[in-house]
Amino acid sequence: MSSDVASTGAAPARTVIRPGATLGLLGGGQLGRMFTVAARTLGYRVTVLDPDRHSPAAEFATGHLNTDYTDPASLERLAASCAAVTTEFENAPAEALDAIAARTIVRPAGSAVAVAQDRRREKRFFAGRGFPVGPFAVVDSAADFESALAAVKLPALLKTARFGYDGKGQAILESPGELARAFEAWKGLPCILEERLVLEREISVVLARSDDGAIAAFPVAENRHAGGILDVTIAPARIDEALAAEAIALATRIAHALEYVGVLAVEMFVVGGRLLVNEIAPRPHNSGHYTIDACRTSQFEQQVRVLCGLPLGDPSLHTPAVMVNLLGDIWRDGEPRWEAVLRHPGAHLHLYGKREARPGRKMGHVTVCDAVPERALEVALAIRADLGIGESA
């Protein structure tokens, strides 16, 4: 290791990566951009590996390897030049992370990322370790149709096992015949069939786990979706303290079971007063963006701290907040009227620097902070209306 890396005197020794070192990032989207800003603020250099020459993260980074994620030369260069490497999206090839890990520190590990990359593996991980999940069945081929429909009541959701996000790779099934049609339309890709539950709330817990097993959990967030994409996040979630404590405890157990090191998001459903785990994201999460403006330590600074072996920051909320996602749809008549956002006290605008606005594409977010949670929600909804954003589901 370079002189930028030191060990504490504690036993067992912990590797600490000091400011001035170079950190590597696999992926260069908006999550990587916010990680890079946090890392640069703390005094680190950042090299981004991303095939997009206009990568949002690369705009703030000190280096950009503009190649495919699996390019051997780029992986070698990242491993050789970076004191530690992380990722900003769950579909970063696990084998690429494993290759880098042979040369330098990688957090989270490829093994943990691989669980989140495949819904079959993810659901089996939850169920096999006793974590509460809704009814589901694996559909690898047409031979699984009968058993899947016996295990899961209709209406149900059919989801591709891999590469589904923001509502993509999902179909609502109302009748048995729709299973075969959807499966055929996806050309026989492996899938998961899940019962379509009646939800009281959708919530998420974002936490950080360090290499010594310490946990710092952010307040539970409440999420609303529109078209399968996160629309609004309310923090803290409007649930009782006992259920919030249970959600944090459940997310903590999952992090320990994965032997996870990094920032982890655990999405959950509240159904009949009970918690059910939906899925995990091995990275900072859209529903944790409020932490930038409303918490003592943001999820992105926490990601830097864990990666570098530094003490975890205080995740506590200093001001209640509501976050609104800004999708490319609101650019339909040109650049939105940002003065409609910034005229509101407590409103914080974050734009991701993407060059092309497309419907459904995440272009930015607004966080409204207010000591009175109801007022924060009222202002956030007013901003949505001013920007012409439709009602959430």
Could you describe the 3D structure shown?
This protein has three domains: 5-106, Rossmann fold; 135-195, ATP-grasp fold, A domain (Dna Ligase, domain 1, 2-Layer Sandwich), CATH 3.30.1490.20; 201-386, ATP-grasp fold, B domain (D-amino Acid Aminotransferase, Chain A, domain 1), CATH 3.30.470.20. Helices cover 29% and strands 27% of the residues. It is built from twelve helices and 20 strands. The strands form four sheets. Strands 12, 13, 14, 15, 16, 17, 18, 19 and 20 form a nine-stranded antiparallel β-sheet that branches. Helix 1 (30-41) crosses helix 10 and helix 3 (94-101) runs antiparallel to helix 4 (110-117). 44% of the residues are buried.
In short:
With 393 residues, the protein is an alpha+beta fold. It has twelve helices and 20 strands.
| Tally of separate domains | 3
- CATH class label of the largest domain: Alpha Beta
CATH topology name of the largest domain, in short, is D-amino Acid Aminotransferase, Chain A, domain 1
Q: Strand pairing plus helix content: what structural class?
A: alpha+beta
Q: What is the mean predicted local confidence, pLDDT?
A: 93
Give me the number of helical elements.
12
How many E-type strands?
Answer: 20
Radius of gyration: 21 Å
End-to-end Cα distance, whole Å, is 50 Å
Largest sheet: 9 strands, antiparallel
Into which percentage range does the β-strand content fall? Answer: 25-35%
Helix content bin: 25-40%
CATH architecture of the largest domain: 2-Layer Sandwich
> What gross morphology would you assign?
globular
- The named CATH superfamily of the largest domain: ATP-grasp fold, B domain
